[in-house]
UniProtKB/TrEMBL annotation:
Domain of life: Bacteria
Origin species: Nocardiopsis tropica
Species lineage: Bacteria, Bacillati, Actinomycetota, Actinomycetes, Streptosporangiales
Pfam families reported in the protein's UniProt record: ThiS
Protein name in the entry: MoaD/ThiS family protein
């Protein structure tokens, strides 16, 4: 399993109670499952579900999370929807 970092921004940071954390995973799906085990509350799950994801600065978009491989040193960014006008 690869050691990767998940970085949380804005509401995701608030819901997780931390700006970043390390997880071990082979895919983005496994990394997110690990994050959900660390933060099993509904608020975190809602924010995560509404967020956009970047893997090593590349948008994940509609790709299946199980098809997105991660490696040692991969950085996953969780970007919740931003309000503003």
């Amino acid at each position: 399993m690869a050691k990767c970092t998940i970085r949380y921004w804005a509401a995701a940071k608030e819901a997780a109670g931390t700006a970043q954390e390390g997880v071990e995973a082979d895919t983005l799906a496994e990394a997110l499952e690990a994050a959900c085990r660390l933060h099993p509350d509904d608020r975190f799950l809602r924010v995560l579900g509404a967020s956009s994801l970047l893997v090593d600065e590349r948008p994940v978009g509609a790709r299946p999370h199980g098809a997105v491989a991660v490696a040692d040193g991969t950085v996953i960014e969780v970007l919740p929807p931003f309000a503003g006008g």
